[in-house]
Amino acid sequence: MVELKNFVTGSNESGFHVVGANWGDPFPLPETVVDVRTARPGDRAIHDPDQTLQSARGIEVGHIFQLGTKYSSRLGATYTNEQGEDLPLVMGCYGVGVSRLAQAAVEQNYDQNGIVWTVAIAPYHAIVVIPNISDADQVAAAEKLYHDLNAAGVETLLDDRNERAGVKFKDADLVGIPFRIVTGRSLQQGKVELVKRATGESEEVAIDAVVMTLQQAIAEALQV
Fold first, then answer.
1. Residues sharing a CB contact under 8 Å with residue 50, sequence separation 6 or more, in sequence order
2. What CATH code would you report for 126-222?
């Protein structure tokens, strides 16, 4: 900025700019001049030598859209050019990109097994896994839990594929759904296995208590 000549700048008045500005004419050069382009982590702050410049990695989640005249021509939004012609405005907009937010969330929440979605933005809260689809009791219990959970507002998937249990568990971890419910061996005692994706913690929960347990866990996770 210090070396700029004949630059354009604001004039402290809405809608107006100064063209051909120079330091010293009409703007006095500040007493303290810092070329931030050459700043490096560890440099001391001029206003407080006890503070040093630090560097951190950021994630870009914003979009800029060049809309052109697609909408302005339809809306009749025009401006008058120097030749007195009415022309459609050239439009643009910016905002937060949903796809970029998802990518940023995954970049910050994963492990060696795959994605670890937080409850707040997970595509589903829970997944019910049937280890053996040839077992009628496992299938019946899983389907009932699937319907009961969804009816209670717990967004749930049902994995009833004809695959080995290990494959299903690995896929559930890869997708990163926060809670996994398994209708396995403990079903004989009226219980299912509940696994937390983020920590890997596993516990046996009575079938009748699964809905309430997940509702409470989700509510706690969403508390700010």
1. 44
2. 3.40.50.800
